[in-house]
Design a protein that fits this description.
The complex is a heterodimer of chains A (282) and B (228). Chain A has 282 residues and is an alpha/beta fold. Helix content of chain A is 34%, strand content 28%. Chain A has a domain of 42 residues. Classes of the chains: A alpha/beta (282), B mainly alpha (228).
Chain lengths: 282, 228
C-alpha cells in the first residue's frame, strides 16, 4: 500500500531525510516515531504529494506519489496538525464542504461526527471547540470519505489522556475496517499501543524498524526481573536457574507484591540507538 | 465545474458569518442609499453619490474581499486541505472570483435603485466589468501575499489609488491626467455619461489594456508563487 525506497530530501544544504526505506501492507498501522525535527512531517508531506524529493522512490496505492490520479487521491485521508478548519462554520458545515467534494452523502456526516464523539457539538462553530474537539473534527474530515489509506501527523499531540485514548480507539477501529494507517508521533506509548510496525527516525535516518515488541526484546540486553516485595524491598534478579529458585521460594511464601520483566520500552531503545530522548535531547 | 460550485457554496456559508468581509459588500450600497436620500444640494449632478460611490465600490470591495479570502485560507491552512482534497487551484480561484463578483453585483443592484430604469442595464454592465477587473487584481494580491497582514498592506495603497484617484481627479487637473490610465477613472467616465453612446473607443482601449495587464500579472504571480 505504501512504499519508500531510498528516499532523500534536503532543504538547501540541510539533508532532512536520508535513505528512507520501508513498506507498509494493507490493514496495518505503521508508526514513525521520532523527536521534533526528525523529519516525520516532511516524510508525510512527501508521501501525500505535498513535497517533492531528490532521490529514491515513494509510492502509495502502487503508484508513484508524484503521479497519483484523482481517483487514487480520493482514496487517501490526511490529518495534519497544521491543517486548519473553517472557524466560523459549524462542525457539520465544515464536513459538508468535503462531503460535497468527495461526493459523500450528507447523512454520512452525522455518523462520522458520532464516531469521533462530536455528536453533541455538531452545530457548534469550530472556533468554539476545544483543542481535543478540534482534533476530532480534523479526524472526522480525514475519515469522512472512508479512504483506504490514512495519514495522521501527531494525531494526539497536546491532548489529555482521556481524549488520547478515545482517538486511539478510533484509529484501531479504522484498522479493523481494513484501513492502512501511517502515523507519526513522538509518544512511545502511543506507538507501542497502536502500531504493528514502528520506525525510529532520528535526524532524517531510520535507525531501527520492526514491531514494537520485537524491538524491545531485541534490545533487552540486561535480562533481569524486578520484584517488589510486600516488605517494601525491591529486588533485581538475573535470568537463570538460581533466580528461578529464589522467585519460586518467594512466591511460595507469599512475599511478592509485583513482578516485572525488565525489557526496555521504545523510549529506552531510541535513547540507546541515538543518545537522544524522544522528547528533547539528553 | 462541480468543485467551482462547491467553493461558491462554501464561500456563501462562510462569508455570511464573516462580518469583516461582509461589511465590504454592504458598506457602499448602504452609504449610497443613505446619501442619495439624505443630501440634496443645488446644482448637484443627478445620482451624484451613486456614481461616486460606484467607482469606489469597484476599486475597494472585490479587491479587498478576494485578497482577504485567499490570504485567510492560506494563513489558516484550509487552502491546503482543499488542495489535498483534489480541488484544483483554478477551481478555487474561479469559485472565489465568481462568488465575490455575484455579491458585488447584488450590491450594485441595490445601488442602482436610484437610477432611471433605462440606465440600469448600462450601469450594471459597467459595474460588472469593473468588478471583474478588480477581482483579478484581488486574486493577484491574494496569491502573492503569504498571510492576511501582508495582503492588507498591499491592498490599502492599491485600493486608495483605484478608489480615491478618480474622486480626487475631479478637483485636480494634473492628477486627472495621471489617473486616466487607470480603469476605475475610465469607468467613472462611463458612469458620468450613462449611455453606450458616450463610451469612447480610447476609454474602452484603456480599460482593455488594464484588464489584459492584470490578467498577465495574475498568471505571472500564479506561476511564480503558486497558490500555496
Amino acid at each position: 500500500m505504501i512504499q519508500c525506497e531510498n528516499v532523500y530530501k534536503s532543504f538547501g544544504d540541510r539533508t532532512v531525510l536520508s535513505g528512507i526505506h520501508f513498506s507498509i501492507s494493507k490493514g496495518k498501522i505503521f508508526g514513525l516515531l521520532g523527536p521534533s525535527g526528525a523529519g516525520k512531517t516532511t516524510l508525510i508531506k512527501i508521501l501525500t504529494g505535498q513535497l517533492s524529493f531528490e532521490k529514491g522512490k515513494a509510492s502509495v496505492l502502487n503508484n508513484s506519489v508524484q503521479n497519483l490520479t484523482d481517483e487514487e487521491k480520493k482514496n487517501i485521508g490526511i490529518m495534519m496538525d497544521q491543517f486548519g478548519v473553517y472557524d466560523r462554520l459549524s462542525c457539520t458545515d465544515n464536513l459538508k464542504i468535503f462531503a460535497d467534494i468527495y461526493s459523500v452523502a450528507h447523512n454520512v456526516i452525522q455518523s462520522t461526527l458520532e464516531m469521533v464523539g462530536l455528536k453533541n457539538a455538531m452545530n457548534m462553530k469550530a472556533m468554539d471547540l476545544s483543542k481535543g474537539m478540534r482534533t476530532r473534527l480534523q479526524l472526522a474530515r480525514a475519515f469522512l470519505h472512508s479512504p483506504s489509506i490514512i495519514f495522521l501527523d501527531e494525531p494526539t499531540a497536546g491532548l489529555d489522556p482521556l481524549t488520547m485514548k478515545s482517538i486511539h480507539k478510533m484509529i484501531l477501529d479504522k484498522k479493523e475496517s481494513g484501513c492502512t494507517i501511517f502515523l507519526t508521533t513522538h509518544n512511545m506509548e502511543e506507538a507501542a499501543a497502536l502500531c504493528d510496525t514502528v520506525a525510529l527516525l532520528n535526524e532524517g535516518v531510520i535507525v531501527e524498524i520492526g514491531s514494537p515488541k520485537e524491538m524491545c526484546r531485541k534490545y533487552n540486553h540486561h535480562k533481569t526481573i524486578k520484584l517488589h516485595l510486600i516488605s517494601g524491598e525491591d529486588m533485581e534478579l538475573m535470568h537463570g536457574k538460581e533466580s528461578a529458585d529464589e522467585i519460586y521460594q518467594l512466591l511460595k511464601s507469599e512475599c511478592i507484591e509485583t513482578i516485572h520483566s525488565s525489557e526496555p520500552n521504545l523510549e529506552t531503545v531510541f535513547l540507546e540507538l541515538t543518545g537522544r530522548k524522544l522528547q528533547g535531547d539528553v | 465545474m462541480r468543485n467551482v460550485l462547491i467553493i461558491i457554496k462554501k464561500q456563501f456559508r462562510d462569508t455570511l458569518k464573516n462580518k469583516t468581509v461582509l461589511i465590504q459588500f454592504v458598506l457602499f450600497p448602504i452609504m449610497t442609499l443613505i446619501m442619495e436620500h439624505a443630501i440634496e444640494l443645488d446644482g448637484m449632478p443627478e445620482c451624484f453619490f451613486t456614481k461616486l460611490f460606484s467607482v469606489m465600490y469597484i476599486g475597494m470591495a472585490p479587491l479587498t474581499t478576494v485578497a482577504a479570502i485567499i490570504s485567510e485560507e492560506k494563513e489558516k491552512n484550509t487552502l491546503r486541505v482543499l488542495m489535498m482534497a483534489n480541488v484544483k487551484p483554478w477551481q478555487y480561484l474561479t469559485g472565489v472570483g465568481i462568488y465575490v463578483w455575484i455579491l458585488c453585483m447584488a450590491g450594485a443592484l441595490v445601488m442602482a435603485t436610484g437610477l432611471e430604469r433605462q440606465f440600469i442595464f448600462f450601469y450594471l454592465a459597467v459595474m460588472g466589468t469593473g468588478f471583474m477587473i478588480s477581482v483579478i487584481l484581488g486574486g493577484c494580491v491574494g496569491i502573492f501575499a503569504k498571510n492576511q497582514m501582508s495582503a492588507t498592506s498591499i491592498v490599502i495603497p492599491v485600493m486608495a489609488i483605484l478608489s480615491f484617484g478618480p474622486m480626487l481627479a475631479m478637483f485636480n487637473g494634473t492628477l486627472e491626467k495621471v489617473v486616466r490610465f487607470i480603469y476605475t477613472q475610465q469607468l467613472k467616465g462611463f458612469l458620468d455619461g450613462m449611455s453606450f453612446e458616450c463610451v469612447k473607443g480610447e476609454s474602452v482601449g484603456i480599460v482593455l489594456v488594464n484588464a489584459c495587464l492584470l490578467i498577465a500579472l495574475f498568471f505571472l504571480t500564479f506561476k511564480r508563487r503558486g497558490l500555496e
